[in-house]
């Protein structure tokens, strides 16, 4: 069945450090891939997405590239800010209208 | 444009009781999905409704049931509550057409079962 595996957290970085959060997936078809962010006490917000192999999703300085050969969708940001502190979830969906499969989330804390 | 809203925000129930959670989907969205997020975990798919019919279900027992109304709002009902049902319940709306994939989430309802 479909599944998503994320790197374990929590992750603590200093402001302006480089961020990588690893995500790999297992899927029966050709899924779309997503990163969602959850700030304390809030629901999930879509951060970025990629719908086919080699697509790069980007938003607010975050990037992730859909790598079919390694079944990965790692999240990166060149310079994190304190305001990026949140929990990040990698997710996949096989097709429009289908359920999303989420990873367990990676908590990020950025310290000044 | 109004986003996804959920009510109530927090709820405390006793084991064995029944609960109803409500969700209003984003304007123009015809599909609603419900997820359970246990503490420290990722959301787990409960079920999805499209055009008032259940359109997929995750690995949850029948005591989890739902409804979707003509205005696309939705309810999640849980009977015979168990302690393990304590979680954040998230509603997500989307459009099932035209290749759109995104699901837009509400802020969630925090259910505590004692």
Q: Tally the helices of chain B: what do you get? A: 0
Mean pLDDT of chain A: 93
Largest sheet of chain A: 6 strands, mixed
Mean pLDDT of chain B: 91
| Residue share in helix of chain A | under 10%
Count every helix of chain A, treating DSSP H or I runs of 4 or more residues as helices: 0
Percentage of residues assigned to helices of chain B: under 10%
What structural class do the secondary elements of chain B suggest? mainly beta
Radius of gyration of chain A: 13 Å
The most extensive interface between chains reads: A-B, 25 and 31 residues
Q: Kindly, what is the distance between the CA atoms of the first and last residues of chain A, rounded to a whole number of angstroms?
A: 41 Å
SSE sequence of chain A, one letter per element = EEEEEEEEEEEE
> The biggest beta sheet of chain B, please?
7 strands, mixed
List the uncertain runs of chain A: none
**What oligomeric state is this?**
heterodimer
Q: Could you tell me the radius of gyration of chain B in angstroms?
A: 13 Å
Keywords:
heterodimer; A: mainly beta; 4-stranded antiparallel β-sheet; 0% helix; B: 114 residues; 7-stranded mixed β-sheet
Could you explain how this protein is built, in words?
The complex is a heterodimer of chains A (112) and B (114). Chain A is mainly beta and 112 residues long. Chain A has no helices and 12 strands. Chain A has strands at 3-6, 11-14, 19-21, 23-26, 32-38, 44-50, 56-59, 62-65, 75-77, 86-93, 101-102, 106-111. In chain A, strands 2, 5, 6, 10, 11 and 12 form a 6-stranded mixed sheet that branches. A 4-stranded antiparallel sheet of chain A has the order 3-9-8-7, with no helix packed on it. In chain A, a hairpin with a 2-residue loop joins strand 7 and strand 8 (62-65). The relative contact order of chain A is 0.34. By secondary structure, chain B is an all-beta fold. Helix content of chain B is 0%, strand content 50%. Chain B has no helices and 11 strands. Chain B has strands at 5-7, 10-13, 19-24, 31-37, 44-50, 53-57, 64-68, 74-78, 87-94, 104-105, 109-113. In chain B, strands 2, 4, 5, 6, 9, 10 and 11 form a 7-stranded mixed sheet that branches. A 4-stranded antiparallel sheet of chain B has the order 1-3-8-7, with no helix packed on it. The radius of gyration of chain B is 13 Å and the shape is globular. The termini of chain B are far apart. The model of chain B has no long low-confidence stretch (mean pLDDT 91). The A-B interface holds A 4, 32, 34, 36, 41-46, 49, 51, 89, 91, 93, 96-105 and B 4, 31, 33, 35, 40-45, 48, 50, 55-56, 58, 90, 92, 94, 96-108.
